[in-house]
Design a protein that fits this description.
The chain is an alpha/beta fold and 449 residues long. The protein is 43% helix and 19% strand. It has five domains: 12-106, Nucleic acid-binding proteins (OB fold (Dihydrolipoamide Acetyltransferase, E2P)); 116-270, Succinyl-CoA synthetase domains (Rossmann fold); 274-324; 333-375; 378-424, no CATH class.
Length: 449
């Protein structure tokens, strides 16, 4: 094999430079369609190193940090995209690569596939679990709204809230589509949650809203950063993105999904007039129920009272019973004494006359003493000795000076009748000095032998 020694010699760098210029001059800016098989971001530099492929070849690509920050759709493995950029070489590794300056999903189908993949991954983490969802307060004091400050959405929501039940509204303005929208929406959700509990500016409920649009227009609400912010919100959150047929991933992470922004306003507050009407109905029902219950109790008390005797009848019966017992006692005591006397006579028949006389004398003395005691216990007997029985207007016996009423009437009973005096005419007098106490002689029992 022969070699031509008169051919020019090139250094490695010269060859690399010629190839670089040839590639860049030939292709310049290109649009490349393919599937992202590998995506890696350098944590230090922020540059993304990507591998694109189709069914026959692979192509390395680089997306610089500044370009990455501007991408509306972040590159993910498995995503079918159209990358726009410059084809160049990398002499240090003897390879060619694409410097990406723009990246977009390859049609709606690619977006839907990526959306479904992301949905499954986030669902597997439990971010869409119904057990995580918080109840929406019935009547919040403050409502936080995250949406664009311009356009019909915010005007319609404010009008509907004012129309139904006026509440304090805080607007956190954000872009709702385009570059950086997802980051600002997530920051707004986190910002409302960062307000201290108890602060008047802290919302009781958050509404994230925007009007309808294409899947590309609504894509910010499918970004993972927004979904995680919604799922981690400690404040109940209502999502109201697009029209009723539009569904984004924030809808699965929110505590409640509204079909439209105005629908979210209706979920947030009740209708004041309907609430007042309902309160009036409940008040009327409560009043009616109380009246029925009171009538029921009155009827029951009346029925129970018919079965009870009158108080006068109860007192009259006891008074009659007391009179009967008093009469029986007056008869029983002399009879008992008579029986005792007869017993003594029978016993005396077997005794000597002298002893019998002595026993009879003692028994006679004892009987006389008992008779005197009986006479002293008789109220009329006491009254005959100059005493009187004093009763107040209710018939209660006045037993001491302290019980004497200062007004009203008093009944004074003597042995031969009663007199009524005014309590105010009875003046107190000094009490006599107490006499020295004497030891009372023991009283014989009525039934001692």
């Amino acid at each position: 094999m022969s070699f031509v020694h008169n051919q020019p010699e090139y250094s490695v760098s010269e060859i690399a430079g010629h190839v670089k210029r040839m590639v860049e001059d030939t292709f310049g800016y290109v649009r490349v369609r393919g599937e992202l098989s590998k995506v890696g971001v350098n944590s230090a530099s922020g540059h993304a190193y990507i591998t694109m492929k189709d069914d026959k070849a692979v192509l390395d690509a680089v997306c610089w940090k500044g370009t990455m920050a501007k991408l509306a759709h972040k590159p993910e493995a498995g995503m079918e995209v159209i990358a726009t950029g410059r084809l160049t070489t990398y002499p240090g590794a003897s390879k060619y690569q694409l410097i990406i300056e723009a990246l977009e999903p390859a049609g709606v189908g690619a977006l839907m596939a990526m959306l479904e993949k992301r949905k499954k991954e986030l669902a597997a983490e439990g971010l869409f679990d119904p057990a995580r969802k918080k109840p929406i307060p019935f009547l919040p004091e403050t409502i936080g709204i995250i949406t664009s400050p311009t356009g019909a959405v915010i005007r319609d929501m404010l009008h509907r809230i004012s129309e139904r039940f006026p509440r304090h509204v805080l607007l956190w303005p954000v872009p709702v589509q385009g570059q950086g929208a997802a980051e600002k929406i997530a920051a707004a959700i986190e910002g409302f949650n960062a307000i201290s509990v108890g602060d008047a500016q802290r919302p009781d409920v958050i509404i994230v809203a925007r009007g309808g649009g294409s899947i590309e227009d609504l894509w910010a609400f499918n970004e993972e950063i927004v979904v995680r912010a919604a799922a981690n919100s400690t404040i109940p959150l209502i999502s109201a993105v697009g029209h009723e047929t539009d569904t984004t991933l924030i809808d699965y992470a929110s505590d409640k999904r509204a079909p439209t922004p105005t629908g979210a306003a209706e979920f947030a507050v009740p209708v004041r007039e309907e609430l007042l009407t309902r309160m009036e109905q409940l008040h009327a029902a409560k009043t009616g129920a109380m009246r029925k219950f009171i009538a029921f109790l009155a009827e029951r008390v009346e029925g129970l009272s018919r079965g009870l005797p009158r108080p006068q009848q109860l007192v009259a019966g006891m008074e009659q019973q007391l009179d009967g017992l008093s009469e029986r006692l007056a008869v029983a005591l002399p009879r008992s004494l008579q029986l005792r006397h007869e017993k003594l006579e029978r016993l005396a028949a077997g005794l000597s006359p002298r002893l019998l006389n002595e026993m009879l004398l003692r028994q006679q003395q004892r009987v006389q003493h008992l008779g005197a005691m009986l006479e002293s216990l008789n109220v009329l007997g006491v009254l005959k000795r100059g005493f009187a029985l004093v009763k107040d207007a209710s018939g209660k016996v006045v037993q001491s000076a302290a019980m004497m009423p200062s007004e009203g009437t008093l009944s004074v009973q003597f042995h031969d009748g009663e007199r009524v005096v005014m309590a105010g005419n009875v003046a107190p007098v000094s009490s006599p000095k107490p006499r020295s106490k004497k030891t009372a002689a023991p009283q014989p029992s009525l039934f001692d032998d």
